[in-house]
Design goal:
The complex is a heterodimer of chains A (about 170) and B (about 900). With about 170 residues, chain A is mostly beta strands. Chain A is built from 2 helices and 12 strands; from the N terminus they run E-E-E-E-E-E-E-E-E-H-E-E-E-H. In chain B, helix 16 packs across helix 21. Chain B is elongated and about 115 Å long. Classes of the chains: A mainly beta (about 170), B alpha+beta (about 900). Chains A and B meet through strand 8 and helix 2 of A and strand 8, strand 35 and helix 20 of B.
């Protein structure tokens, strides 16, 4: 039996955008606990689930996004554990990458490749939905008037980030 | 500002179009026509221009052909060139076509290039290709950037003339989100050539620009209307700038979803059809006026105005006010007829006749006022049906289009002076209708004599309206001539279809960001950088990059793959299996759901065990496969093929929601959650043992086809005991962010066990030696489970599963193509995948084809899998694989070449 190896957790996690060059107005969200919820549920970890279609509930550091009938996405601090529930509760923390798109040009930048109407009247603070950014599927949530949280599957993160960089170029990168 | 045209330097004023600047410099000869190479000047002053097509050269790849000089804005240092002439615009040898014109009637191509057949490829096609097209296409990759933007608004106003501006101002005042676009460099449309309108225009624009809810887009052409009020706008961002900021895109595509569309596209003046109406210096009356008043570029000193309506008087008045001498205003309504013109490179005389009295009038400018055609292009694209307005001599919007209105001149809303009806035509001699494609009135009459009745056929036969200007100035005149020749009315002749784009749009604008690395997402696994560092050669699998093999110094692919295969068979290899699709199926009815989706029986699969699952389409044919692990009574971890991941999840979700809503089961894609590292080979257990934190992975506790949740150096892990290689094998699943570190840890252990990395190519060879199929390679959408030897997987006691009923249809059993192995006499001969197989070399009836073929790294001979008619009845038979010029004899074998008992799997 060889010597005991150091635990892997001691090594740094590696995300798909660790080495990506920065894009003005775009920041990488920290690692998160992401949980996909399905089923006839009312609460997750004591937080009431939002019942209004395409709206997110924010409770302390935990956001819960309504994505479909009986379907939610939980975005919680990375240290939170997954709490079982009545239905399907699946940990998808590593499935996605979060990006924050911030600033008065956030809507314009997103509309380079996202066909949704992001006007505040049409997509108010708290709105969330699955949509596309170019050829990638994303989940978009408006945290604030000028702050969007974008979730993208990790293997599409490089593409989405590079497309944001290309679209941001005309606003003066760097 | 300075610019050059065909190498000669000229001066321009700020705001000039190239046409205006050339005219001010006395240059009227700007192009050569397509077919006859006739010398041509401008006909129009706007986007409808058919003649003055030029090339703008910004150096290197930035060379754009076929631009209309009437819309190109001059910038300081611009280099412009004429086209379709050799060696020069003034002397063009192609003009010999003009002398041959009597022998080049419409349909000349169809009539001439018929025989001998052999001359087509060698003579005619190269000749036609050389003659085709006007400009030179750039031959270097486009170095400019193009961007795209989606937008929404309450009202999109297309055209910023008086009607469009009024509509935009009103909508903006009502608090609506407004977008206003205009193809010109400045807003104002016809107001720009009316000095009296300047103050009012300035005031309206100031209010709109100050409104934060209004988006103002000049140099922006609305080129197409698509479903549900989606409008395509092409914005030219930097073409007018001498030295554009490289951060700016050259052009921007706007895809605008508008609640309401206001089309205020205006109207286009029509030329008059008379002999010799195409010489430089003969232009539309309104164009002459625009050059004189808006640009201060008098298009001549001595003008004759020929008119079919009252606007001729206005043109004469405005030209005179600009200092042009008006030699004569000839009103065709007074019985005059134009008999011809003269002047080689510029008009010098115009001949007229009335009541037998002929006269030649010297002039250097002929202004033609043939009436006005409303620009109903966008209305028509939006499925509006126009009606013919005889007074106007043009089609105007008629049927309603929801949420779209036409206003101003494009709605036919024009003063009486503009109403010319269909102007009289003098078709003797060469009276041009379509200027760019050189279609004359006689050509159209000839087409009708040759039997063409429909305007769509006449158009294709004569090419009228088919040039880059799409007949903006010519279509109504052509209709009038065809109607006259057939003795029919214009509504009876009909109208050709208006298609997108309104004016040419660059490929760059349409492609936008989707070029190079952004053409498609490039998906990589969490271990990608490690594979790169290990020298992997990658292959594209869908949008994924997968490591195909890892060559060492001097190894070619064959050698590398052979080494990787032997390594797996002899010691241990590791492989990145992250790209496989993974779905977590959770809920009280999860097993029942699985029973319905897969052909296999799942109810009695114990938690902790795995099963190879096969999924059919409703047609009974194999759709996907993969190993499924049962983690708990209500939780399955399903794997799919890499390519089938999204499709399989979508199909499952479709059934779940629409067919079986009563089942308490839910699906979650976890493909991207897990990094998956396959460790395969007789020393796989030894390699993994120190990494799994004391987990018992002995054969007794963790046999082939089992799954366990544990930890990997302290990190959450799902460990599968599965094999796609035929050796003892594990698949380590760790959360994706830890894939990199886990790969490094396993790599060190695998190295210590004399193992290493292998890629997809070795994986393919290893599985083929075992006769494991790949869905999409052995199957082609017409293979039943039995065809590929998987009938054993069918849960016979199940009442139903997707595709079950189709399996009982006639033709789904009996003599079908079945999976077999093939051996060649020469062990070194590798068959070709896709090659057809027959019984003998005399018999050409295909029995099947080779689906997989490899050198066979460990079995000592080449191997192949094939789908062959009644293949299992032919075991031992010799068949022929037909290759170009020869045949290869093969012996039919069972499809398993290696360890047929499967003893190595259970080690």
């Amino acid at each position: 039996m060889p010597d005991a190896l150091p635990p892997l957790a001691a090594l740094a996690r590696r995300g798909p955008l660790d080495r990506a060059s920065p894009v003005p107005g775009v920041t990488l969200a920290p690692p998160m606990r992401r949980v996909a919820l399905h089923g006839d549920m009312s609460f997750y970890a004591g937080i009431p689930l939002p019942r209004t279609p395409l709206r997110a509930a924010l409770s302390d550091e935990t956001a819960i996004l309504w994505l479909g009938p009986e379907e939610w996405l939980v975005l919680a601090p990375a240290c939170d554990n997954v709490v079982p529930g009545n239905g399907s509760v699946v940990d998808v923390s590593h499935r996605q990458v979060g990006l924050h798109i911030e600033g008065y040009r956030a809507e314009t930048l997103l509309n380079a490749a996202c066909p949704l109407d992001l006007d505040l009247d049409a997509f108010p603070v708290g709105a969330c939905t699955r949509t596309v950014f170019g050829k990638a599927q994303i989940t978009l949530w408006r945290r604030d008037a000028a702050l969007f949280h974008l979730e993208v599957a990790r293997s599409f993160a490089g593409y989405v980030h590079a497309l944001l960089r290309e679209a941001a170029l005309e606003f003066g990168a760097g | 500002m300075k610019f050059t045209f065909d190498g000669r330097p000229y001066e321009a004023r700020r705001g000039d179009t190239l046409a205006a600047a050339l005219i001010r410099n006395g240059v009227h000869l700007m192009g050569r026509s397509f077919k006859y190479h006739r010398p041509r000047g401008v006909l129009a002053a706007g986007a409808e221009e058919p003649n003055a097509l030029v090339e703008i050269d910004r150096g290197g790849a930035r060379r754009t052909p076929n631009l209309r000089a009437t819309v190109v804005e001059v910038f300081d240092g611009m280099v412009a060139r004429s086209q379709n002439r050799t060696p020069s615009l003034r002397f063009d040898v192609g003009a010999v076509n003009d002398l041959l014109a009597p022998f080049l009637p419409p349909g000349f191509y169809y009539k001439t290039f018929m025989w001998p057949i052999g001359a087509w490829a060698k003579l005619y096609e190269p000749l036609i290709r050389r003659a085709a097209g006007l400009g030179r296409a750039p031959d270097l990759p486009d170095t400019d950037r193009y961007t795209q933007r989606f937008a929404h608004c309450d009202v999109l106003v297309i055209g910023a003339g008086p009607a469009g501006l009024a509509a935009a101002a009103e909508a903006a005042a009502a608090g609506m989100r407004v977008m206003l676009c205009d193809e010109q460099a400045e807003f104002g449309g016809s107001l720009l050539s009316d000095p009296a309108a300047a103050a009012g225009l300035h005031e309206t624009l100031a209010a709109l620009f100050a409104n934060p809810r209004a988006t103002m887009l000049c140099r922006t052409t609305a080129f197409g209307i698509y479903g549900d009020n989606l409008v395509g706008l092409a914005e030219r961002v930097t073409d007018h700038l001498p030295d554009p900021d490289p951060a700016l895109p050259r052009e921007r595509l706007w895809q605008v979803r508008a609640k309401r569309i206001v089309v205020a596209a205006g109207a286009i003046e029509r030329p008059l059809v008379f002999p010799g109406n195409d010489r430089p210096g003969i232009m539309l009356g309104d164009a002459a006026r625009i050059f004189a008043t808006r640009y201060g570029a008098n298009p001549g000193r001595n003008a004759v105005v020929v008119t079919a309506c009252d606007t001729g008087a206005d043109v004469a008045r405005d030209l005179a006010a600009s200092g042009v001498r008006i030699a004569r205003v000839i009103d065709l309504r007074e019985g005059f007829r134009v008999t011809g013109t003269s002047g080689r490179l510029r008009v010098s005389f115009i001949g007229i006749e009335r009541g037998g009295a002929r006269e030649k009038i010297p002039c250097d400018l002929v202004a033609m006022c043939g009436g006005w055609t409303p620009s109903i292009h966008l209305y028509s694209q939006a499925r509006g049906k126009p009606r013919f307005d005889a007074a106007l001599g043009a089609f105007v919007p008629d049927t309603e289009v929801s949420n779209l209105i036409c206003v101003g001149a494009c709605a036919g809303d024009m003063p009486g002076a503009y109403r010319a009806g269909i102007a009289p035509v003098s078709s003797e001699g060469r009276a041009f209708v379509d200027f760019q494609n050189d279609v004359t009135a006689k050509d159209l009459e000839l087409a009708t004599r040759e039997g063409f009745r429909s305007i769509e056929h006449v158009k294709r036969y004569t090419t009228t309206g088919m040039a880059t200007d799409q007949g903006k100035t010519s279509n109504i005149n052509a209709l009038g001539i065809v109607a006259g020749a057939l003795g029919a009315t214009i509504p009876e002749i009909g109208l050709t279809t208006f298609r997108t784009p309104y004016t040419p749009v660059t490929f760059g604008t349409l492609a936008g960001h989707s070029r190079g690395d952004l053409f498609d997402p490039v998906r990589t696994t969490p271990m990608h950088q490690l594979a790169v560092a290990a020298g992997a050669v990658f292959e594209d699998v869908g949008t994924w990059k997968r490591a195909r093999y890892f060559p060492r110094a001097a190894e070619d692919m064959h050698m590398a793959v052979a080494r990787e295969c032997r390594m797996v068979r002899d010691s241990v290899g590791m492989f990145d299996a992250t790209t496989l699709g993974e779905i977590e199926v959770v809920g009280a009815d999860a097993a029942e759901f699985m029973n319905r989706v897969y052909i296999n029986a799942w109810t009695r699969l114990a938690p902790g065990r795995c099963r190879y699952g096969v999924m059919l389409g409703e047609n009974g044919f194999v759709m996907d496969d993969g190993v499924v692990g049962r983690l708990a009574p209500d939780r399955f971890h399903v794997t799919t093929t890499t390519g089938g991941a999204a499709r399989v999840l979508a199909a499952m979700e479709d059934y779940r929601q629409t067919e079986w809503p009563e089942l308490r089961v839910w699906l979650t894609s976890v493909s991207e959650q897990w990094a998956v590292i396959a460790v395969q080979g007789p020393r796989a257990r030894e390699a993994l043992l120190p990494l799994v934190d004391g987990l018992d992975i002995s054969a007794a506790v963790m046999p082939h086809m089992s799954v366990v949740e544990g930890t990997f150096l302290g990190i959450e892990m799902r460990l599968f005991r599965v094999s796609f290689s035929g050796e003892m094998g594990f698949e380590v699943n760790v959360p994706a962010d830890y894939g990199h570190a886990a790969w490094e840890a396993i790599s060190a252990r695998v190295g210590a066990c004399q193992g290493g990395l292998y890629g997809t190519e070795a994986m393919h060879v290893l599985r083929a030696e075992k006769g494991f199929i790949i869905v999409g390679q052995e199957t082609d959408g017409t293979a039943t489970p039995d065809d590929v030897g998987l009938a054993w997987a069918i849960g016979k006691a199940k009442p139903d599963f997707i595709g079950k009923r189709s399996l009982t249809r006639s033709g789904m059993s009996g003599p079908r193509r079945q999976l077999v192995g093939l051996r060649t006499d020469d062990p070194a001969t590798v068959l070709e995948e896709g090659a057809q197989i027959t019984a003998t070399t005399d018999d050409n009836r295909p029995l099947g084809h080779v689906t997989s073929a490899y050198g066979g790294a460990t079995v000592g001979h080449s191997i192949a899998l094939a789908m062959i008619e009644s293949g299992r009845d032919r075991l031992g038979a010799t068949l022929q694989v037909r290759m170009p010029g020869r045949a290869i004899a093969v012996r039919v074998t069972a499809p398993v070449f290696y360890d047929p008992e499967g003893a190595r799997l259970d080690a």
